[in-house]
Structures are given as structure tokens and as C-alpha cells.
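Encoded backbone
================
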Amino acid sequence: MRLTPLIAVGVWISFFAYIGCSSSDEPKPLDCNSSDLAILLSTKSDPTDCNTSNGSITVSASGGVTPYQFKLNNGTFGSSSNFNNLSGGSFTIIVQDANDCERTLTAVVLNAPAAPVAGASTISPHTNCANPNGSITVNVTGGSPPYEYKIGTGAFSSSNIFSNLKAGSYSITVQDNANCNITINNVVASNTTVSFENDIKPILQTNCIKSGCHNGDNGASLNWSVFANVQSRAQAIKTRTGNKSMPADIAPTGLPQEQIDLIACWVDSGALNN
């Protein structure tokens, strides 16, 4: 059967959309740096005992684009802004809006009676992608000294200083001499000298700015030769290169880890035109 001209054109468009990059695969333009998304502490309730997890935290969000999702520390995002069954410690809550923009509320402290009390931690940012150099020094009082400390699932030690850290969220457990524990959650910021011009642009030129993808073939807004287009999608680029779904033509192998880390460092440092 002979196809009419309009049907034939539709077939060819569908065919090329299938074998090449298509704009439907790309994230929507956004600029999280200019978003008015905000997160605020609404209420909190301290646990009633050092070995009881009955504390709670409730937050609220505004601005950005609804619906919002929330997560506590390194947990998973969900629709609830209320977090229950918490022990004493310091907590971090993150809100994410429909544009995947995020805002973080740090150092929400719940104090348990007779347990150590979390003070403000001293945090040094991660400034070197190749050699992580961030650090956290936790400070506690009260309870029954001496204290022991561990980060993540590591072993307890007498040192309250944790070094050689990448940018990210960290959970530190403090245990006193009466075996009362508190958890302190902190965020190490990224303040690296990764250069868009020297480090990130060459990666994009080699892997993304090519025929049928991000050279403008799929629309001017998807042309990554234009810095503003890259910056507006910086968070999505970090996410998709990190999970190796992009570049699409080499998924799921993805970019070399060194390049993935460079992109993440650049985005975490503000996606600057440097």
C-alpha cells in the first residue's frame, strides 16, 4: 500500500526521533540559582529520653514550583514534610520542587535528656576535586564524657575530626560513656576551582555537542555551545551524568568517573562561567 505524503513524513519523523536524540528526552529549561524556593522549620519536638526515638520535625516550603518533596538526611524523597520517631541529634532536611531545584535546612537540633547535646560543627568545604579535602569537626557537651565518634558506618574512635571528605551530606554518631547516642548530620559544601572553559566545556564538546544531539539540531535551547543553556540545566546534567543515563549514546556505560566528578564539582560550586 502506498503511503500518502503526510503519513510518509510522519513515519520518517518517528524513525529519526527513535534513532537519535530528541528534545523529549531532555530536561526542561530551568535556573535553580534564581528560584525563590525556600524551606523553613515549622515545629520540632525533642525525644523524651536518650535511648528513645520519639522526637519529631515538621518543615514547610514556599516558592519554586509545586508539588514539593522532602527528605531527611540521606533518605529518599517523599511528599510528607513531617518526620517522626527521631532520636536526639542534629538533622538536615531537603526540599525539592517540580523543577528538581533543591533547598536545604541544616542543623535542626533535637536534644534528648541526659544525652550529649550537639553544638555547631566546624566545617571546611571541599576545594579540590582530585583530592577531597573537606572536613567536619563536631562539638558536643553534656551527657557523660568521654565521647566516641564515628562517621557513617565506620568504627568509633576518640577523634571528633573527620577529614578528606568530598562535598555531600554526612552522618556522625556520638556516643557518651553511658552509651547514650546522638546523630549529627552536616553538609560539606563544594568550593572547587573547576573551570567551565577548561574542564567542563571540552567534555561537552566531545560527548554532547555533536550532530543530532546538543549542537542545535533539536532546537536553540538545546544547543550546549551556548553557556546559558548549559547553566540552566546544570543540576539535571549532574544527575544524568552521575547515573550514567547521559550521554544517551554511551549509556549505560557513561562517562569516565573522573569526568563525572568534575561535572558534579562544577555544579555544586554554582555552575559558574569561569
